[in-house]
Amino acid sequence: MAPQYAQSLRFRLPPLLFFLQTGFIVVFIVYVDIEQNVQTKQHAFNNYYSEFQDVHVMVILGFGFLATFLVRYSFSGAGFTLLVVAMAVQWAVILNGVESMYHRGNILINMRSLVVAEMCTASSLIAIGAVLGKTNPVHLLLIALLEISGFVLNGWLLQTFVKVQFLNTIMLLHIFGAFFGLMLSWVLYRQGSEQQHEKEKIDRKTGLFSVMGTLFLWMFWPSFNSVLVEVDHLDRGRSLRAVYSTYLALAVSAVTAAGFSVLTSPQGKLNLFHIQRCTLAGGVAIGVAMSAVHLPWVATAIGFAAALISTLGSRYIKPIMLFAFECHDTCGVLSVHGLPGILGWMVQLLLQIADSDDLTTAVRFAVFHICTLLITLSLSMSLGLITGFLLKCHFWRPPQNKKCFDDQAFWEFPHQAGKR
């Protein structure tokens, strides 16, 4: 039997797609140009292209496969990820070029701008993970566009008023996306979510594909954390240090997540959700703290603490958020991205204070660093609330409760049509 809202989606999704894409094409025709300096282009290609490929693989294959874990939502998990990325990258390129357009009259496309756009898109995918399976593709596109707008605005505010380096603002994507998504899940909460939905589960096939996404993310995360280091630091050694630190943090994080997954299991067994996500917590935390990490043991300690917080959060904090605060976080983005991100922020604060030459410098840095987090949390949570109330409007035709976590509401299945 066809889902109630399948036909009405025809009058919402295609018009939105064509409207947005036409608008982006017009903007690209009028304002966007490719960087013409041959020497600069060759330098950017040599320095960025291989790492751009790594980031691209992470965003498309990593997040795409990771979203296929639900037993009847694998088509939507992978397909909607591609759709959102394709649209969101264009929007991020335009937004990140607004300042250039204001001063120069046009937006220049280069390898670095594409990398930054991909990283902004990753922030929106993190937010979407909190409401995965409970929304339609129109919702997801609107979430991505509004979240990226807020994230770019947050970066501009931090760089302009708090004088935060660009690298540090972009690495706040984990915190911004996680708390944006958490507020979304609170506003879009559905009655009855206390009881697990019959389709909100993993089977062997979808679990295997989801672990493939984890492997892609785990393999290429060092590039994700190091690709923009040289934007602020011309010393190539800093970029290599970021690679080493990220790899060590990820390695320790994977081992620690597996250990605590068994320890916290009533049956004393590994939990696939922990292996899929908590093994990545070290990469999240080290990315936020990266500018202050100079020693290998610090990276390993961060990986251990991040995996511990993430695993315990997935096991205990996620149910508390559901029953006490009515936040149904499908992918556990608070435990995987939010809490490890805040851990990285705290580590960066402590290390920078320890490295300060005098008390005045330490206090000044602490004040600005705390302001950075407060601005990021305030903006992400407020925009998440606004976006949630906007999407709660029935005009967007959210899926029925019984059609949540189900591909059949959005995708054709010819073999089933043949049986009918």
TrEMBL record:
A biological-process GO annotation: ammonium homeostasis
Subcellular compartments: Membrane
Gene3D superfamilies tied to this protein: Ammonium transporter AmtB like domains (1.10.3430.10)
Superkingdom of origin organism: Eukaryota
Domain Ammonium transporter AmtB-like: 19-394
TM region(s), chain numbering: 16-34, 55-75, 81-102, 114-132, 138-158, 170-189, 209-231, 243-263, 283-309, 330-354, 366-391
Keywords: Membrane, Transmembrane, Transmembrane helix
Keyword Transmembrane helix: yes
UniProt cross-references to Pfam families, sorted A to Z: Ammonium_transp
InterPro entries: Ammonium/urea_transptr, NH4_transpt_AmtB-like_dom, RhesusRHD
CC per GO annotation: plasma membrane
GO molecular function: ammonium channel activity
Membrane topology: Multi-pass membrane protein
Family statement: Belongs to the ammonium transporter (TC 2.A.49) family. Rh subfamily.
Function: Functions as an ammonia transporter. May play a role in the elimination of ammonia in the gill.
Protein's UniProt name: Rh blood group, D antigen
